[in-house]
Write a structure and sequence with these properties.
With 266 residues, this protein is an alpha/beta fold. The protein contains eleven helices and eight strands. β4 (90-99), α5 and β5 (127-132) form a beta-alpha-beta unit. α4 packs parallel to α5 (106-123). The radius of gyration is 17 Å and the shape is globular. The relative contact order is 0.15.
Length: 266
């Protein structure tokens, strides 16, 4: 059995002292690949260094919507393009998107999102989308972008939307990724969404170090805990963990065009 954690932030300071031990645990938990998300281009070299140490780590480059106000410029957009073109291990653009829970600078966020969608399209890479309290604005903007420029592949990461909102993004071809929040007892709308996503569009993640799943809630999250996410989603869908792992691993490899495991060893 193999799992893919499709969204991690193991470059954060909380992992600096014990990353080798964290890696040992994710390998013991059969996490075969990790997709390391990027919240701003300045992280790129550090993420590259992690991927140099652990060949199962692939990564993205982008600017998070909550960093747009202080850090977005045309130059940053050009930097994202150049960095994404510079390393074959870059498998996505992002994370980008909209966050109206913590910020209201919608025009700036949309400008940065548009540029990153265009970069993803130009480089034929998927986008990793952060969407918090912004589903309606996001889907409206996607429809406009699709009409004007064509479609973009991608994933709605750490998804917490309603089943109706889930269907909006499925209809555009997006994958839907569930995090530790799906294990929370009162997360009924996330449970419903996890049950309705087609099997070929389903992904799992930790978003570590955030949102640790039960039974680790309130503690630092780490990639090995993606198994708890997978177990909960499997239970919701009346599947075995082996069936769920096989499907989500296949989906992740398809979306991010991850190489065969044998290629990582050779």
């Amino acid at each position: 059995m193999q799992l893919v954690d499709t969204h991690v932030h193991i470059n954060f300071e909380t992992f600096q002292q014990d990353l080798d031990a964290v890696a040992k645990r994710w390998r013991e938990a059969n996490v075969a690949y990790l997709v390391h998300s990027c919240v701003e281009p300045s992280e790129f070299k550090g993420i590259q260094a992690i991927a140099d140490r652990f060949p199962e780590v692939f990564f993205s480059v982008g600017l998070h919507p909550l960093d747009v106000e202080d850090k977005w410029s045309d130059r940053v957009g050009e930097e994202i393009f150049q960095l994404a073109s510079s390393d074959r291990r870059v498998v996505a653009i992002g994370e980008t998107g909209l966050d109206f829970f913590k910020a209201q600078n919608s025009e700036q966020q949309l400008q940065a999102l548009d540029k990153q969608l265009a970069i993803a399209q130009q480089l034929d890479l998927p986008v990793i989308i952060h969407c918090r309290d912004a589903a309606e604005a996001m889907i409206d903007h996607f429809h406009r972008f699709w009409d004007q420029h064509g479609s973009v592949r991608g994933v709605m990461h750490c998804w917490g939307g309603t089943p109706e909102e889930t269907q909006w993004f499925l209809d555009l071809g997006f994958f839907i990724s569930f995090s530790g929040t799906v294990t929370f007892k009162k997360a009924t709308q996330i449970h419903e969404s996890a049950q309705m996503v087609p099997c070929d569009r389903l992904l799992v993640e930790t978003d570590c170090p955030f949102l640790a799943p039960i039974p680790h809630r309130g503690k630092r999250n780490e990639p090995a805990h993606v198994r708890h996410v997978a177990e909960k989603v499997a239970s919701l869908r009346n599947l075995s963990i082996e069936e769920l792992a096989a499907q989500t691993t296949s989906n992740a490899r398809q979306l991010f065009r991850l190489p065969p495991l044998a290629a990582l060893v050779n």
